[in-house]
Amino acid sequence: MNRRLLLVTHSYTPESTAPQRRWKKFLAGLTAAGWDVEVLTPPADPRYVDLAQTGEPYLQIRRTPDVGFLPDSRSGRLARAVIHAVASVPLSVFSDADIVVATVPALPNLVAGRIIASIKRVPFVVEMRDAWPDLIFESETGGKFFGTLVADIITRLQRSSDQLIAVTRGFAETLEQRKMPPVEVIFNSRQTEDLPLLRARERTAGELNVLYLGNHGESQQLDLLIEATEIARTQNPKITVRFVGDGTQKPALMALNDSLGRPVEMLDPTFGRDTVENYRWADTCVVSLRSDWASFAHTVPSKTYELLSYGKHITGVVCGEAADILKQAGDHEVVHNDPQSLADTWLRLAQDAHSTPTQKAGQAWVAEHASDTAQVMKLDSVLKRKLPQKTNTSFLKRSSTAASISATAALEHLKNNRALFGLLVLRRLPQRLREPIAMVASNFNGGPLDTVSAIGKAVLGRTDELETQACALLGKRGTDRKIIDYARVFIALGDLQTAEWFLDRVRPNTRGLVAARAWVAWTRGDMAQAVELMKTAERERKTVARWSSELKSFQGAMPQLQPIGEYHPTEGRVLHVLTNSLPHTPSGYAQRSHSIMLALKELGWDLSAVTRIGWPITTGALLAESQDFVDGIGYQRLLPQQLASHFSERLQQNAEMLLQHVLWKRPALLHTTTHWTNAVVVQAVANAVGIPWVYEVRGQLADTWASTRGEDAIYTDYYRLFQTREKEATLAADGLVTLGEQMKANLVDFGAESESIVLSPNAVGGQFLQEPGDTRQARIELGLDPDLEYVGTVSSLVPYEGIETVIEAAAKLVPERPHLRLLIVGDGTALPNILEKARKLGIADRVIAPGRVGREESHLYHQALDIFVVPRISTKVTRMVTPMKSVEASASGKPVLASDLPALSELVHHEKTGLLVPAEDPAAWAAAIASLLDDPDLAHRMGTAGRQWVMEERTWQANAQKYDELYRRILAQ
After folding, report:
1. pLDDT of residue 923
2. Angle at 573 between CA 570 and CA 579, to 5 degrees
3. Which fold has domain 573-759?
4. Strand pairing partners for 104?
5. In this structure, are residues 924 and 731 in contact, taking their beta carbons and an 8 Å threshold?
6. Alpha-carbon separation of residue 401 from 121, 408, 640, 656, 714 (angstroms)
7. Most buried residue, 346, 401, 484, 625, by most Cβ within 10 Å?
8. CATH of span 208-362
């Protein structure tokens, strides 16, 4: 299947304009390179139509409505551009695209392109033909306020793109200095192989024909040329100056020309052969840009390359990069932009009949630096880098699939527990949206809105108010069902003790009471009891079916697949089967998976990945593609038209879809990660095709679940059966990998042989391998006060992370440390409680919580901290599982304070790379924080030692060697 490109532009065939000529060549070249191309553009402007142009049968052109009745003024052009941009979005629904390119200077194209690319979930490329947004200020467009607003929007859109294209090196460097996305320079170009040099005409001394052919706009400052012509012709009437073209300033230029006695011959635009004849007529051709706009130092008029390719002599009223090109590409004139200097230049050239010879060096320069072939090849390469092997499903088909999967998932949650569904929806919103929406919801009251209010309070962590609100209903007539609704909110929060307390105060025969008690049992982990209890509830047949299906899988039912008789694996090809991945989540799990695959790819392995069935649509990415590519790694999505509604059936569906993908990819090895639901699917597929599989244990999810449910949780059906399934997966796999010594010991307890387990600890890569940046500069870039003290974390915020301990410690320190701030970066179910704890302790103004940040920013937050904290509470899971966050902090040269737990002691060397502090002891944490803030030299030494340890022992390249050995050993058996 060909790659598909959608170009959003303000000018295209049959117009003949600079952007049209550039992209006509590019699209022809891209088509030859295997691309399918479509263009979204307005109707052609009759003034610029060149009917002699060759057709382009290889592309589809879609045009927005005709608004030619609008005036040809700055405001009229802006209105046309806005209408085109608005109309482009619905028109794009009919186009399939793997990548969207928007060209400026029609600035609304940026907005349209960004929206279209977001809808289609494809990369967005911006071509900056001019130095925007700098030109906004230099042209004083719309006044200071409007200009600042527009410039800010342009900058945000540039930063939101996946790739920027500039036409000059200078402006590319400017964009790079502004820390924009990747920037590539693709020059305006010409094809020189079959283009004849235009021989300079023979002329007598005193004669000189001067031509300006191009746009008559504000940027060219053509009034200067008219004034220079009047001066020159006063001294030498044999100097003839001709303007050919059109533009917004032409009426004003004609008026000026008339007032000076019409020294310049002013003609309408020409195309094709007529343009060449004008070039033959001219002895020197003018390219001009005003010098009072600083950004034009990084601008090269596109006409420059055309004139050079014909070998024409050029008079350049330009500076910067354009002037440098003229100096390199032959014997041309570069003139200061004042009328007298320009007139003097023309007078001097006129005196010498041989002063404007054919410039062979100009054509040679274009052939070397700006040929069509070279620029098309570069553009093709740039675009392919954005999507190396991208496949695309039609937008309508993706929408249908997304609607089906998301509806199944949503209905499942709604049927399970309406309160839980409300919590899930709000918690998945970005923090900047979640809090105001929850705040509004919390203020609702009356009837069913009381439940909405309860959910809002729950999301905000205001559980005390929630209890008070529910208690106020006790004993009142007709409130029993509403009390059950409040109990369901507490069930959704995991506060089963409070939920049961309220349910015990409801009249026994109240409708919904039995179902609520069944939900308590199910949430507690007593699965069999919950199923039996729910069977006695009214109208809960579907819930019983769902729970019975899940219990069946927990009790050992596995997907069943028929053996494949003929399977021929591809040597060196490995397929990773993952729970989630980049680019839809920046989680530590996804980062680890990606880093491992990149490192293995460098060792020669053929790597790709597939994620669990329905993901990422089931978590809200409704327009997800069936495949994503990140840094050359392909991530396939298993997106069925209809997602199975029950647990065991969904595992079977997952196995069947994975088998089809395996038969297509033909891997020699499968590699999956915790938990057991991944393992049983991969085991079934591996057995069906007869290849080995690796199980990587990254967590103790049963213990994570139990950590929030009290000591008795380990005796429940859920915990016991979960652990049994994990043990079976551990013993069935052909290879085992885990993160640390404590987790390895757990696998040995399951019965695995110690020497067969590969330790692959969390490590760092990418920006964390680079020398850490300056702390003060990082704070400035993030908008933080550089003179304050910052203690904090970059983490998923879940209860067992224990951030409340640091909140309490900070409350003890704040009275004597007015500059102390807690920087809590991340999001999760614990964030509302963390912020509520800070509010109750009176230090809410000392807590900075920016929410979840992208991986491109996370290293800056690490660099901004003085101390990194990992204050995990003491549970079975936290004593065993090693996190990634502290390794990244050490790589950033920061001292780490961590709870004194066995797993964390593998990552923090006490009094060398940081300090181990008693878990859940705010006073001890306050003392540890103060000790490092009071001794910055000690903190610096610890940070330096931590980085040295990471660089020596904790890189993905080092881990990749272990995987490489494991894969080779398994495949050799």
Report:
1. 97
2. 130
3. Rossmann fold (3.40.50)
4. 128
5. no
6. 15, 11, 7, 18, 39
7. 346
8. 3.40.50.2000
Domains of the chain, residue spans: 3-185, 208-362, 395-510, 573-759, 766-954
pLDDT tens string 591-636: 899 999 999 999 999 999 999 999 988 876 766 788 888 988 999 9
Query: Which of 691, 692, 694 lies closest to 756, judged by CA?
Result: 694
Phi, psi of 710 (to 5 degrees): 90, 170
CB 608 within 8 A of CB 581: no
Integer CA distances (angstroms), 488 to 452, 470, 799, in order: 12, 12, 20
Q: Scan for tokens 């695309």, then name that residue.
A: 392
Q: pLDDT tens digit string along 242-275? A: 999 988 889 999 999 999 999 999 999 887 788 9
Q: List the one residue out of 292, 278, 286, 222 whose CA is nearest residue 255.
A: 222
Q: How far is CA 910 from the centre of its chain?
A: 37
pLDDT of residue 388: 46
β-pair partners for 314: 285
As a CATH number, domain 3-185 is 3.40.50.2000
pLDDT at 391: 44
Counting as low any pLDDT under 70, the low residues of the chain are 1-2, 52-55, 68-70, 72-76, 135-147, 192-194, 388-433, 446-449, 620, 622-623
Q: Which two tokens mark 47?
A: 């003034």
- Residue 377 structure tokens: 């090849």
CATH topology of domain 766-954: Rossmann fold (3.40.50)
Q: Helix, strand, coil % (nearest 5) of the chain? A: 50, 15, 35
Which tokens belong to 265? 């011959």
Partner residues linked to 212 by β-bridges: 243
Task: Give the pLDDT score at 935.
Answer: 97
Q: What Rg do the C-alpha atoms of the chain give, in angstroms? A: 34
Write down the mean pLDDT value for the chain: 88
Peptide bond into 181 cis (omega under 30): no
Nearest-10 crossing angle of helices 676-689, 717-732: 30
| Amino acid symbol at 721 | L
Length of the chain: 973
Q: What is the model's pLDDT at position 155?
A: 83
Helical (H) or strand (E) element with 868: strand 867-870
CA angle, 428 then 431 then 411, to 5°: 20
Give dist(CA 147, CA 139) in Å, integer.
Answer: 9
Which two three-digit tokens encode residue 283?
Answer: 């002895």
Report residue 899: phi and psi, to 5°: -60, 145
Angle between the N-to-C axes of helices 480-493 and 496-503, in degrees from 0 to 180, rounded to the nearest 10 = 170
- Token pair for residue 246? 């059109």
Separation CA 720–CA 706 (nearest Å):
11
Cβ contact 872:801 at 8 Å: yes
**Token pair of 584 as six digits:** 């839809």
Residue 693 and residue 690: Cα distance in Å, rounded?
10
Distances (CA, A) of 386 to 124, 318, 628, 816: 9, 35, 11, 52
**Angstrom distances, CA of residue 114 to CA of 8, 83, 392, 585, 828:** 10, 16, 18, 20, 29
